[in-house]
Amino acid sequence: MAALKKTRYEAEITWLGIVGDREAALASDAAEALELSFAGPKGEDHGGETRPSCSRVLGLYPRNTPIRNTRQLAVVSEEELQAIAEEMGLDALDPAWLGSTIVLRGLPDFSHVPPGARLQGPDGCTITVDMNNRPCNLPARVIEDQRPGFGKAFKRAAEGRRGVTAWVEREGRLRVGERLKLFIPDQRPWSELEAARAAS
Fold first, then answer.
1. Regarding predicted confidence, which is higher, 126 or 25?
2. Are 155 and 137 in contact (CB under 8 A)?
3. Is residue 83 part of a domain?
4. Secondary element (H or E) of residue 60
5. 62 — pLDDT class (breaks 50, 70, 90)
6. Domain count, the chain
7. Residue 196 domain-assigned?
8. pLDDT for the residue numbered 165
9. How far is CA 90 from the centre of its chain?
10. Strand ranges (DSSP E) for 65-171?
């Protein structure tokens, strides 16, 4: 029996990008297609099969511990980007400013799709959702450079709408305009989830 359930939901890829050198700049450069290997998108500085641990997992490991890279891609929703922009008082928010890899249109409440969900392209290329991507101040600095006076508003406006991080499960190519199918784990939510959150 399949452990992943195909849903009726699909999303259109409306934008793709690559961060070539995150030390030089967080912002992405737009691309028409991405070649995805098990190490992530070709040319992406956040790629690699492993990565040094960061602040997000300090409860598990000391900083810079080598761990599996489940943050190869930063995937965001076009609809949520627009909602963030509106709350900030902007007409639009360029996904490049956030260091985004993929922008999707058509999946409701995208930032909260279940961890372990898969998004599969026409050639079988498949990415696996790691978890919700928490807002941080790095995009705020880029936004401030582009739209002075607005950067500070980003972190609060992006809460719960920052998209997800993901990693490559099956290699292939993704192109702007293609549609991805959503598969979710075929299981109910953990019965102790709320209790575990309340206790932490």
1. 126
2. yes
3. yes
4. none
5. very high
6. 1
7. no
8. 96
9. 22
10. 66-68, 73-77, 102-105, 118-120, 126-132, 164-170
